[in-house]
TrEMBL record:
Belongs to the adaptor complexes small subunit family. This is Coatomer subunit zeta. Coiled coil: none annotated. GO terms for biological process: intra-Golgi vesicle-mediated transport; intracellular protein transport; retrograde vesicle-mediated transport, Golgi to endoplasmic reticulum. Oligomeric complex that consists of at least the alpha, beta, beta', gamma, delta, epsilon and zeta subunits. Its main location: cytoplasm. The coatomer is a cytosolic protein complex that binds to dilysine motifs and reversibly associates with Golgi non-clathrin-coated vesicles, which further mediate biosynthetic protein transport from the ER, via the Golgi up to the trans Golgi network. Coatomer complex is required for budding from Golgi membranes, and is essential for the retrograde Golgi-to-ER transport of dilysine-tagged proteins. The zeta subunit may be involved in regulating the coat assembly and, hence, the rate of biosynthetic protein transport due to its association-dissociation properties with the coatomer complex. GO terms for cellular component: COPI vesicle coat; Golgi membrane. It holds the Pfam family Clat_adaptor_s. It is a peripheral membrane protein. It comes from Salarias fasciatus (Jewelled blenny).
Amino acid sequence: MDSTSPEPSLYTVKAVFILDNDGNRLLSKYYDPDLYPSMKEQKNFELNIFNKTHKADNEIAFLEGLTIVYKSSIDVFFYVVGSAQENELMLMSVLNCLFESLNQILRKNVERRGLLDNMDGVFLVVDEIVDGGVVLESDPQQVLQKVNYRADENPLTEQSMAQVLQSAKEQIKWSILK
């Protein structure tokens, strides 16, 4: 094996973010703390990507030594960022899962207003797909099942939020006791 090849890693995703049609951040999650450590650097990076991609018809961009896959819908842009050596198909499966999951939650109306109104569900979806840069799920139906979403209900009810908080408390308690 070539000694210059990077070691295989589960940490495939460097960042996931959603921008509106003006390039403003709606959601962003950076999984590599060394990539862009400050908020200013992150916003500059996002603006550079937006300027390069908002009029393009492609699905893949390469910028600053990173592989970026993206998709737009009405007035929002979805981005998944990986290293330069990352498999574009893997990043694209994350992007498609994110988009299809949100498409189900927002009842096929993926636009800025709907995302802002359901931001709690959007964060849950992103967290179910990627955790710390590791891809956990790429099937939208599994993601929706895990976030306890039903097409005939609101994405989050008070009951399901209480269950999420209780589960988080239990996990923290057990991690401290170990």
